[in-house]
């Protein structure tokens, strides 16, 4: 796997008003699905901001994952650091993207000015997945009895299941630890009021000095596609859209 993941860049369409904005999508989604250009890159370009939309491994536009060892959290975040570059950036992550952005903010090769973490769970769901059952299921075997494994399996089966389950295994080998690498930059947490996946996000907010929590309308998917979340992100980043 290359040192950096593929990205889609959109340059500012007016004089630059702030650092580039790095956008990191969620699990079993895609950059195009989570960050449609007409709602994110285009208005940010009109506000004087470049965007760097990352295509995560195992997902549309990203590299295939041949083995879990390729995609431990450390290796994924190192690759994200290469995507971000050495100049100052703002970072916006949603769901899995937020979990990775949490670690990216403290990476020694990245200078993050502001951080947005949306739909983030304080738990590490991948570590509880029965990968044997999941892999059997996507190859035509019985559906997993465990609800979490069943949900992850269904998500993986809708895409490149082998790559996605390798990604699950790789990330699970280094579970999310909110007590390590706490972001020390201005941080905005966002969660849908009906998003059970972000239940307990207040625990994470309390760990980050000066962080803010904004609850918006919607469940896990509904919050991300809603106007309220987008406007909150633009306001926090100081990107006055036109």
The shape, in one word, is globular
Radius of gyration: 17 Å
Strand content: 15-25%
| Helix percentage | 25-40%
Largest sheet: 7 strands, mixed
Q: Output mean pLDDT.
A: 95
SSE pattern: EEHHEHEHEHHHEHEHH
Number of strands: 7
InterPro entries: AB_hydrolase_1, AB_hydrolase_fold
Domain AB hydrolase-1: 19-123
Pfam families: Abhydrolase_1
Protein name: Alpha/beta fold hydrolase
Descriptive report:
- By secondary structure, this protein is α/β, with parallel strands linked by helices.
- The chain has ten helices and seven strands.
- Strands 1-3-2-4-5-6-7 form a seven-stranded mixed β-sheet, with helices on both faces.
- The longest helix has 12 residues.
- It is globular, with a radius of gyration of 17 Å.
- The N and C termini lie far apart (39 Å).
- The mean pLDDT is 95.
- Keywords: Hydrolase.
- Pfam families: Abhydrolase_1 (PF00561).
- GO terms for molecular function: hydrolase activity.
């Amino acid at each position: 796997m290359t040192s950096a993941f593929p990205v889609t860049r959109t340059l500012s369409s007016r004089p630059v008003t702030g650092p580039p904005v790095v956008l990191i999508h969620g699990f079993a989604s895609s950059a195009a699905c989570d960050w449609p250009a007409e709602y994110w890159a285009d208005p940010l370009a009109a506000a004087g901001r470049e965007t760097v939309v990352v295509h995560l491994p195992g997902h549309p536009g990203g590299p295939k994952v041949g083995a879990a060892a390729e995609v431990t959290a450390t290796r994924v975040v190192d690759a994200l650091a290469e995507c971000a570059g050495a100049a100052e950036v703002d970072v916006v992550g949603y769901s899995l993207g937020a979990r990775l952005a949490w670690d990216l903010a403290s990476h020694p090769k990245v200078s993050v000015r502001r951080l947005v973490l949306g739909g983030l769970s304080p738990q590490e769901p991948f570590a509880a997945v029965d990968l044997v059952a999941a892999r059997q299921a996507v190859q035509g075997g019985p559906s997993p009895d465990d609800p979490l494994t069943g949900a992850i399996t269904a998500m993986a089966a809708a895409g490149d299941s082998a790559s996605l389950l390798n990604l699950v295994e790789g990330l699970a080998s280094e579970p999310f630890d909110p007590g390590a690498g706490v972001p020390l930059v201005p941080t905005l947490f966002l969660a849908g009021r009906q998003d059970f996946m972000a239940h307990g996000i207040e625990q994470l907010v309390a760990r980050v000095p000066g962080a803010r929590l904004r609850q918006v309308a919607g469940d896990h998917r509904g919050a991300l596609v809603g106007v309220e979340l987008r406007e909150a992100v633009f306001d926090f980043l100081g990107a006055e859209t036109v």
